Amino acid sequence: MFTRKSFFTLAILFSSLVSTAFSQQFLDDGSMKLSEVSTDKKYGFEAKHKTSIQVGTVENEYAYIGALRGPNGEQIQARRSGSCCSFKSKDSAFGKGFLDVWEITYPGLEKPMTIYLNGYKYDAPKCPKGLTFKTDSK
Question: Whole-prediction pTM value?
Answer without folding.
Answer: 0.81
